[in-house]
From TrEMBL:
Keywords for the protein's UniProt record, in alphabetical order: ATP-binding, Nucleotide-binding
Highest taxon, organism lineage: Bacteria
CDD domains: ABC_Carb_Monos_I, ABC_Carb_Monos_II
Gene3D superfamilies with a match to the protein in the record: P-loop containing nucleotide triphosphate hydrolases (3.40.50.300)
GO MF, one annotated term: ATP binding
SMART domains to which the protein is assigned, alphabetical: AAA
Function, in words: Involved in beta-(1-->2)glucan export. Transmembrane domains (TMD) form a pore in the inner membrane and the ATP-binding domain (NBD) is responsible for energy generation.
Protein name: ABC transporter ATP-binding protein
Domain ABC transporter intervals: 14-249, 266-502
Stored PANTHER family: CARBOHYDRATE TRANSPORT ATP-BINDING PROTEIN MG119-RELATED, GUANOSINE IMPORT ATP-BINDING PROTEIN NUPO
């Protein structure tokens, strides 16, 4: 039991034994075993909804498993809440940031401690922080405000915070999704060194085989709540792992690019928009997207891409400039979106494109519910018609939900994304605006979504694809633009794109 003896020091191992977690009648984890050796880098793989988050939440004390035990450094421990887990040296780093943007890095670190005194002696704390940092493999600017540092630096701070809080077993939940490939390699490489030095044990949830191959020693693979495989990374290929992840499922075949670009569908002219703080986020930006064309926008996050998409989605007022769709002025009203058959795949779909408490079926029907055949006479909702349609879409888009009536907020992140896709792409589309549509999705879902986007283009849709994933942009785009400080600074045909050149422009050179 906790309290009997102190938390282990140095790198220690964690095991989950016969973990079962039921939510009502649904079994999210079925007798799963996970063994993470001390001083190892362990990857946890599985499709969206396989049970990865549920398993780590059971270990961290966020959930009380229906059955099963957790061993920390080979001792059985009762972890009934995250505080117990922290006291035992377990920490968690999420894909989204938890630091307070308005505070400095130093303030974030010190105030995260359980034992912060009522009056903080900052001079002394800063000295101790410097001493702590000198032992760490990476440095962060202690006096900088978190809002002023890059995504890569923020993720380093999140990790440093865990180490500062003396956590020696780190669970990383898709830690690199907001980082560029370069930043990801830097952060994971540094953690790998600490693991090799015996200071740390890591369990990382990821969808990226490249990271597993480059940094992990061992891997555990879940499939539909069950243990589907495990082993040493050196003895497995990405193909082996993919097969264990998806079982007998077939990957979506990518359609090839067919047809030429037609007339201009979407036109943005000298658009100016501000961010929430009043700063200029989009400056005099002009672009066009033709029918049957995918225009990709590359850029490091925070260069105005979000505000551009928000203006096009009607979530932000433009300060000046014009947007036209098929030649007509466009102000992002629901009526215009409908008339021009526009679809939107925004970022953070649970927050931006769903009603969390409503069912999966209702969320899929959201944009359709007041149109025939779902509505008659404009007011009577034909429930059974849209339910049937939702059920078809749930199957077609392989959305893992217990029933169509389950609240959408109970779905795993990837499955929320699929539900929004089913709604936005499950009908005729003439203009599609997508922002990081594959963020957090497993490779089978990515293949499916890329195929859907390409198919929409081949059917003549004009697609504006904003993404932080260069591989995705290069695979899908016809033309590629680079956005930096609110402006488009570079344009190239994707077929002759030069990565170094794009990278240079992304960095503002
Ligand atoms: N609080 C909850 N109530 C009901 N069902 C839940 C709850 N949390 C998770 N589930 C279900 O358990 C299953 C596993 O979800 P989990 O979030 O663990 O998947 P995951 O492997 O982490 O997926 P992703 O890669 O999409 O994040 C899903 O089908 C999900 O709908």
């Amino acid at each position: 039991m906790i309290g009997d003896d102190p938390a282990p020091t140095g790198a220690f191992g964690v095991e989950a034994i016969a973990m079962t977690m039921r939510f009502g009648a649904f079994t999210a984890l079925d007798n799963v075993e996970l063994k993470v050796r001390p001083g190892s880098f362990h990857a946890l793989l599985g499709e969206n909804g396989a049970g990865k988050s549920t398993l780590v939440k059971c270990i961290m004390g966020y959930y009380r498993p229906t059955e099963g035990d957790v061993l920390i450094a080979e001792r059985e421990r009762a972890i009934s809440n995250p505080k117990d887990a922290h006291a035992l040296g377990l920490g968690m780093v999420y894909q989204h940031f938890t630091l307070v943007p308005a505070m400095t890095v130093a303030e974030n670190l010190v105030l995260a401690r359980d034992d912060v005194p009522a009056v903080v002696n900052w001079a002394k704390e800063k000295q101790e922080l410097e001493a702590f940092l000198s032992r760490m493999p990476f440095r962060v600017p202690l006096d900088a405000k978190v809002s002023d540092i890059s995504a890569g630096e923020r993720q380093k701070c999140e990790i440093l915070k865990q180490l500062y809080l003396k956590r020696r077993f780190l669970i990383l939940d898709e830690p690199t999704s907001v980082l560029t490939p370069g930043e990801a390699d830097e952060v994971l490489g540094m953690l790998r060194k600490m693991v090799e030095a015996g200071e740390l044990t890591i369990l990382m949830i990821t969808h990226k085989f490249r990271e597993v191959m480059a940094f992990a020693d061992e891997v555990t693979i879940l499939r539909r709540g069950k243990l589907a495989g495990r082993g040493k990374v050196s003895e497995l290929t990405p193909d082996d792992m993919a097969r264990m992840m998806i079982g007998a499922e077939q990957l979506t075949v990518q359609p090839s690019r067919t047809g030429e670009a037609g007339t201009v569908r979407l036109e943005v002219e000298k658009l100016v928009a501000r961010d929430d703080a009043g700063g200029l986020a989009v400056q005099d930006l002009s672009l066009t997207v033709r029918a049957g064309e995918i225009v990709g926008i590359a850029g490091v996050s925070g260069n105005g891409q979000r505000q551009l998409v928000e203006v096009l989605a009607g979530q932000r007022e433009a300060e000046s400039g014009a947007v036209r769709v098929s030649g007509a002025p466009y102000s992002a009203s629901r009526e215009e979106m409908r008339r021009h058959k526009m679809s939107l795949l925004p970022e953070e779909p649970l927050k931006n494109a769903c009603v969390g408490g409503m069912s999966v079926a209702d969320n899929i029907a959201l944009r359709e519910f007041d149109r025939a055949p779902f509505a008659r006479g404009g007011w009577w909702l034909n429930k059974s018609a849209f339910r049937k349609d939702a059920t078809t879409k749930i199957n077609r888009y392989k959305i893992k939900t217990r029933t169509p009536d389950t609240p959408i907020s109970a779905l795993s992140g990837g499955n929320v994304q699929r539900a929004v896709l089913a709604r936005e792409l499950g009908h005729d589309v003439e203009v599609l605006i997508a922002a990081n549509p594959c963020f957090g999705l497993d490779f089978a879902a990515v293949a499916q979504i890329h195929a859907e986007i390409m198919a929409a283009r081949n059917r003549g849709a004009a697609v504006l694809l904003v993404s932080e994933d260069l591989d995705e942009l290069l695979e899908l785009s016809d033309r590629l633009l680079v956005m930096f400080h609110g402006q488009l600074v570079y344009e190239t045909r994707a077929s002759d794109a030069d990565l170094t050149e794009i990278g240079r422009h992304m960095a503002g050179h």
